[in-house]
Amino acid sequence: FSYFLRMLGPAIGYALASLCLKFYISPTLTPTVGTDDPRWLGAWWLGWIIISIVLAALASLLALFPKTLPRAAVRRMMALERQSSVAKTEPELPASFSDMMRTFWRLITNQTLMCNNLASVFYFLGYMPYWVFMAKYIETQYRQSASTSSLITGTVGLVFSAFGILISGLIISKYKPRARYLAAWNVIVGIISVLGIISYAFLGCPASDNHGALLSNGEIATQQSCNANCTCDYVKYSPVCSEDRSTTFISPCHAGCRQQQYLNGTKIYTDCTCAKPATANDNSSLPPASKLLGGIAVPGSCPIDCSKKFMIFLAVVCLLKFSGASGRASNFLLSVRCVEEKDKPIAMGFGMTMGSLCAFIPSPILFGIILGFVAIGTAFDVAVWYYAKNLKIFDEEVELQEVEKTQEKMVVED
């Protein structure tokens, strides 16, 4: 449930930011521009005030919890009793640098833990960069607005991740599967992620490729015979659409336009040698090209309808976020159960450190080979499945009864 709230938090944060940015940055002033104007400045600071109040209230509630939870205290007492009954016990060493090195050595030589951590590292190393740039990808590939792209990236995807963690946690707590079953599910999640990323290559909107000719290597042919003398190498990106609404050019220069004029208050580019004139079936609101000089182009990309393709893409994204999040609970259980009790805090910190240094920081830099990293992560999940064959995730029924009896005994003595 805590993982569910952690994933739901960013989604609420995006929604709160969207709400706060609808208010002007200075409440005492009356804005002269609307929210759709690029000069609009929203109240970005308002969210921090709301969050600080909520955190202060939650912190006061957390302060009421005891230092040790009852069930944890019982487990610790039982462990001390077992340890005292053994004749030869390992002496507890004081905290030192050598003790830290021995602890790290135990973690590094733990095959299950290392394979599990490496699987997570390669999974996020391959998947995080795409998620970071997904808003811009949706905006350009499916011609969605910036607000819609941010909503899908920051809210829809994270909500499905949150429910994936919640549902998987409920299933694990109810059925208590063995360690190998949990590891096998992580393998399945990795395979689904690889297949999903491959499917993105076939889910694009073909209509968004109306940018003209392509070279043999798939790059846009920016220089053609119709604009060979225009010198468009360093012209900034400013897309224009041909009169027949069939081709989007990078800029008026790439469309071969030599002049511009205003028609009914709308800027149009004329004398465009690369733009095709409209036909009777194009329903163009512009006058025929014969009445103007050469071909015609209008600012902006050509309108396209990618709603069906976009909904399929959105369904795949939600499926991948849901399935990927469903493996986080099992991944966490495998990490904390495959190490000794005294090494659990360090093991959790060690895993987070590996994820930050090896996945979250370098992932945008290594974005070009995304799919290979996800596949490698799946291979490490297979290794976790192999090494977790004798790992016990949940307490046996006898041990649970012993814990309950000890807890009842403590209550009676109190």
Automatic annotation (TrEMBL):
SUPFAM superfamilies according to UniProt: Kazal-type serine protease inhibitors, MFS general substrate transporter
Molecular-function annotations in GO: sodium-independent organic anion transmembrane transporter activity
Cross-referenced InterPro entries: Kazal_dom, Kazal_dom_sf, MFS_trans_sf, OATP
GO cellular component term of the entry, any: basolateral plasma membrane
GO terms under biological process: sodium-independent organic anion transport
Bilayer disposition of the protein: Multi-pass membrane protein
First-listed, main subcellular location of the protein, grouped into a coarse class: membrane
Family in the record: Belongs to the organo anion transporter (TC 2.A.60) family.
The Kazal-like domain, residue ranges: 220-276
Protein biosynthesis listed as a keyword: no
Coiled-coil boundaries: none
Organism: Coptotermes formosanus (Formosan subterranean termite)
Ranges that cross the membrane: 7-25, 45-65, 107-131, 151-172, 184-203, 310-334
Domain of life where this protein originates: Eukaryota
Keywords associated with the record: Cell membrane, Disulfide bond, Membrane, Transmembrane, Transmembrane helix
Name by which UniProt lists this protein: Kazal-like domain-containing protein
Subcellular location, record wording: Cell membrane
